[in-house]
Design brief:
Largest sheet of chain A: 7 strands, antiparallel
Number of helices of chain A: 3
Oligomer: homodimer
Number of strands of chain A: 15
Radius of gyration of chain A: 17 Å
Order of helices and strands of chain A: EEEEEEHEHEEEEEEHEE
Structural class of chain A: mainly beta
Strand order of the largest sheet of chain A: 4-3-7-10-11-6-5
Chain lengths: 186, 186
């Protein structure tokens, strides 16, 4: 066990497309530095955006954003949204856009699952805005639903790993939570 | 695309064992509600812990914690640490413990990667303490290193999904980040 410096090893993380209205237009940014803060209602999720990004001003202004979950089918589009800026490119033109109850949180019909959030808080870090959203509504395509729940295998998320700089697929199931460890109980 | 209520779909997330010193003793808690807040140095990571957990008081007191990354080999132990409380059970006895520079952030030799963090901030939510840590040092076993970097395929992380209540394996690579989308550039 060797020290390797303060290397962030909290991977993989789900790759998302964050939607926002910026200067009156829908924009999308690829974000995998995300977080689940609590578990409950209201449900709070975080996205960490470098301050240079085009989307930040729109989230500050409208106090809404979306977290869209692309499947592997959208790999090229998802990666593209992380390498070009909405300042120069109409990234929303890649997608069929829709809006939910918040009106200013654009979502993507090609993503099997979309979440709309209202801004709850912003952590002002030197280089990043950490936007904390309260989840308002989730929209899911029937193709990824099973028994009223989202089937993550059908969703086929893109998992991001910084060290390899690759997107990874979800693999097979390894065990049941709150169950597999019961065998160790005395 | 149907509304399904405010269902948190930000999964899978990496399953971690969070280490803390509580009442002078090492304790570990399974946590998959984690987050990457920024990207840089200092690196800030979040863990969301229900207030009923035994570990919270120790993190508040010592202002340190660890985030240990179990591999699939530790599935039973990892799940066990999520279903029994450190109030009644010495969970640290399952593992070979070591400490880094912070002295009060216990880490696990059986985990191929361990991170020690000092407490940067706490978000006080009604039911959860959101502990934000500054990453101080990362410890990795040589078996998961490749060319100076952590090889996530060798790490074999346990990915948590709430809807299925299962641990999932990492799959195969799907594409290169900041690269695959270049084909869409005009």
């Amino acid at each position: 066990m060797n020290p390797i410096g303060p290397v962030n090893a909290l991977y993989p993380m789900p790759t998302t497309l964050v939607g926002a209205t910026v200067d009156g237009k829908p924009n999308f940014l690829t974000v995998a530095h995300v977080g689940i803060l609590n578990h409950g209602t209201p449900q709070y999720l975080s996205i960490g955006l470098g301050k240079a990004h085009h989307s930040n001003a729109g989230i500050h202004e409208n106090r809404t954003f979306s977290i869209c979950m692309p499947s592997e089918d959208l790999l090229l589009e998802t990666d593209y949204c992380g390498i070009v800026s909405g300042r120069k490119t109409d990234k929303a033109a890649l997608f069929d856009i829709f809006y939910g109850t918040l009106k200013t949180a654009p979502m993507i019909r090609q993503c099997p699952v979309n979440m709309e959030l209202k801004l709850h808080d912003v952590l002002d870090y030197p280089t990043h805005d950490i936007f904390i959203g309260e989840l308002v509504e989730t929209y899911a395509d029937e193709s990824v639903m099973d028994g009223g729940k989202i089937d993550i295998a059908r969703l086929r998320p893109l998992l991001f790993d910084m060290a390899s700089a690759k997107y990874w697929r979800l693999g097979t199931t390894a065990g049941r939570c709150w169950n597999a460890g019961k065998s160790l109980k005395k």
